[in-house]
Design a protein that fits this description.
Blueprint lengths: L1 E6 L4 H10 L5 E7 L8 H4 L14 H4 L4 E4 L6 H4 L6 E4 L9 E2 L2 H9 L3 E3 L3 H10 L6 E11 L15 E3 L7 H9 L2 E9 L5 E9 L5 H11 L5 E3 L15 E8 L3 E8 L7 H11 L18 E2 L2 E2 L1
Parallel strand pairs: 1-2, 1-3, 3-4, 4-6, 5-6, 7-9, 11-12
Antiparallel strand pairs: 7-10, 8-9, 10-13, 12-13, 14-15
Length: 309
């Protein structure tokens, strides 16, 4: 049994990790650290679970008795904590994305298996990269319009999202750096927040170096993402397709000359955070990538344009 610790366990991503890991047959949460909720029962925040744990204060000594620690912390803290940990580490913040193994299993499965510190990708970055990466050799440039639910801003979002649609951080979003590192082609990215709790929708406008048939592109995407949690199809996805699932659904694939529009959808707290982090853990410990992710709380019941989940 893999012994697990979570730091920042009472945040949005931390609670989702707790929810999913309760059903993981080969992992057990031994420590749930959260300074603001220390002493409180986990079931006080997750009443539909059976945890006997209480949230505790941070203890690197106790974490170092475990096999792996998830760091679900605000940006800027994990870079100081991770070097103190001797166990494997999966960091859900942005602190290690430019320096350590990038935890996007569709692209870096082999490196993830061999690493002790994984940088979980950003939610917007996950949606943008998966929408465009198979075409990277044919792309002149890309424009990504990203729309997120307000849970992406943490438990205390500072944006006025009520009855509102907002663009923000037009040129300064922290995920721009990881997008540049992974994509390797010219792009622009604009994030938006809407009055919806969860979900990310990315509309990618991709300019090609030459005309390519849309059916050929879709076929290539299906081949590239075979046996992963990314599911391409002709249908234009929406966030309701992916909420409470570990999937990225990709669709559209409509062309006008040397231009193609591809849309991706993820749950920002699942594929954009917790479920992807657990998939990374599974790979690090040589488990089936789906372990712990096919259970109540992960909706595997839907189909997407004939693709069985």
């Amino acid at each position: 049994m893999i012994k697990v610790g979570i730091v920042g366990a009472a945040g949005n991503a931390g609670l989702m990790l707790l929810k999913l890991l309760e059903g993981h047959k080969k992992a057990s949460v031994e420590l749930a650290c959260d300074i603001h909720n220390a002493g409180k029962k986990v079931t006080a925040l997750l009443p539909n679970t059976n945890y006997g744990l209480k949230f505790s204060k941070l203890s690197t000594k106790e974490l170092n008795k475990l096999d792996v620690t998830f760091l679900a912390l605000p940006h800027g803290i994990a870079k100081y904590l991770a070097p103190q940990l001797k166990c494997k580490v999966i960091d859900l913040s942005a602190d290690h994305r430019m320096t350590n193994t990038y935890g996007l299993p569709e692209l870096f499965k082999k490196q993830i298996k061999e690493s002790n510190l994984i940088a979980n990708p950003g939610c917007y970055a996950t949606a943008c990269i998966l929408a465009s990466y198979p075409l990277r050799g044919l792309l002149k440039e890309a424009v990504f319009n990203g729309i997120s639910g307000y849970s992406g801003g943490g438990k205390n979002p500072k944006y006025d999202f009520e009855e509102n649609i907002m663009a923000y951080k037009l040129t300064s979003h922290h995920q721009l750096k990881e997008l540049s590192k992974i994509l390797g082609f010219d792009f622009s990215f604009t994030p938006h927040v809407v009055n919806s709790y969860k979900g990310i929708l990315c509309t990618a406008h991709l300019s090609l170096k030459e005309e390519v048939d849309a059916k050929t592109i879709l076929k290539e995407y299906k081949k590239f993402y075979k046996e992963t949690f990314t599911k391409p199809g002709k249908k234009i996805p929406c966030t309701k397709d992916v909420i409470e699932t570990p999937y990225c659904n990709i669709g559209g694939f409509e062309t006008t000359g040397k231009h193609i529009i591809i849309v991706s959808a993820i749950d920002n707290l699942m594929k954009g955070a917790a479920s992807q982090a657990i998939e990374n853990m599974n790979l690090m410990f040589g488990l089936n990538r789906k372990e712990g992710l096919k259970q109540p709380g992960c909706n595997f019941g839907k189909t997407y344009k004939g693709v069985k989940k």
